Amino acid sequence: MSLRQFSQKLVLVAAGLLLALPMYAGEVPSPVVPKAKAKANEEFGCVEPVTEMRKNHMKFILHQRDDTMYKGIRTSKYALAECINCHVSPEQNGTYASYDEEEHFCNACHTYAAVNIDCFGCHRDTPEEASLGQASTDKSDPYHKDFAFNKNSSVPKKNVDALSSGGAE
User: Fold this and answer.
1) 118-137 pLDDT, tens digit each
2) N or C: which end of the chain has fewer CB within 10 A?
3) pLDDT at position 52, please?
4) Does 34 fall in a domain?
5) How many domains does the chain have?
6) Which of 117, 75, 76 is nearest to 99 (CA)?
7) What local confidence, expressed as pLDDT, does residue 24 receive?
8) Assigned domain for 44 exists
9) Quick check: 74 and 146 in contact, CB under 8 A?
10) Which domain, by its residues, includes 79?
11) How far is the C-alpha of 122 from the C-alpha of 48, rounded, in Å?
C-alpha cells in the first residue's frame, strides 16, 4: 500500500469518526413539560396518547377551529381552553405564567422547536379559574359567549348591537 493510499484511508476513517461522534455525545436535552392537573382519559391521560398529542396537537386545534368557526360545531375535545384549563398550573405564589414566559406550559416546547405561538392574541393563556384579574371572558357577545379574550389582545371586540340589528359597525 502506497503512502498516498494510506493517507486517503486515514482521512476517510477520521471523517467517519467525526461524523459518528454526535451519536455518542448523548441525547439532546428535551424541554421540561409540566404534568397535567387532571386526566381527560383514564387510559392515557390526555384526549389522545402523549406521543400523538406532541406530534399532531396543532392539527387537532386547527380542525377544532374550522369545525367551530366554519360549521358552527362547538365541542370541547380539542378546544384550546380545555388544554389551558388542564395544563397551565399556578406558580408557588398563586399567579399564572403568561404564554411568553418560560414557565408557561405551551412555551416550553414552542421555544424549544422555535415555533411562534399566535393563539393567545385572542385566546386566554390562563385557566378559567384564573381569569379574574388576568383575562376577561366576553359575556356580552352572544355569538362568542364562551370565547375567552386575552386582556392584552389587539383584536377589537364586535359591536353586538350593530350585528344583531343587521347594521354596519
Assistant:
1) 888 889 999 987 554 443 33
2) N
3) 92
4) no
5) 1
6) 117
7) 65
8) no
9) yes
10) 50-164
11) 25
